[in-house]
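2024-03-11 09:14:02 INFO worker-7 job=invfold-0412 stage=load source=structure_tokens
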């Protein structure tokens, strides 16, 4: 049984960042983010991140700013084509800490709004005797486009 060392709620995130290790920059992508840590993924071809401290640049285009922080690599998982890295944030300016807090809080509110949408949709579905009688589900930015066979074969 594994022990979860996360102390804060993490929100899903999809954002490209730059990690600096020994003054060498390399790109990675955030998978999830919290007030005090993040999990990133990068291709196996990238340099492996050594345990210890690294510098992070997290662009926040919503605020026309970048968060600069020092992070400690706590965990690294090597997959077939990618490397996942668990990083605990250590040092950053107070302005950047506030910007990170706003970013995480915004993501948390979005997760809660999506959960509420699903609950409301399930309640609405319960009013119909079968799923075929129910109206189509709401379309969001995360909805996977589907096509009916009639649309593909005129």
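2024-03-11 09:14:09 INFO worker-7 stage=emit residues=154
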């Amino acid at each position: 049984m594994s022990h979860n060392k996360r102390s804060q709620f993490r929100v899903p995130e999809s954002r490209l960042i730059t990690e600096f290790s020994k003054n060498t920059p390399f790109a990675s992508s955030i998978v999830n983010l919290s007030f005090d840590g993040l999990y990133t993924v990068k291709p196996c071809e990238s340099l492996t991140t050594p345990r210890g401290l690294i510098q992070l640049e997290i662009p926040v285009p919503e605020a026309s700013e970048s968060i600069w922080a020092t992070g400690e690599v706590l965990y690294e998982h090597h997959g077939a084509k990618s490397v996942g890295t668990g990083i605990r944030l250590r040092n950053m300016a107070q302005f950047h800490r506030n910007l990170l807090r706003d970013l995480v809080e915004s993501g948390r509110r979005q997760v809660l709004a999506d959960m509420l949408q699903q609950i409301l949709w399930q309640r609405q579905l319960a009013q119909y005797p079968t799923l075929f009688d129910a109206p189509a589900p709401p379309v969001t930015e995360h909805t996977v486009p589907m096509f009916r066979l009639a649309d593909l074969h005129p």
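2024-03-11 09:14:09 INFO worker-7 stage=report msg="The mean pLDDT is 83."
2024-03-11 09:14:10 INFO worker-7 job finished
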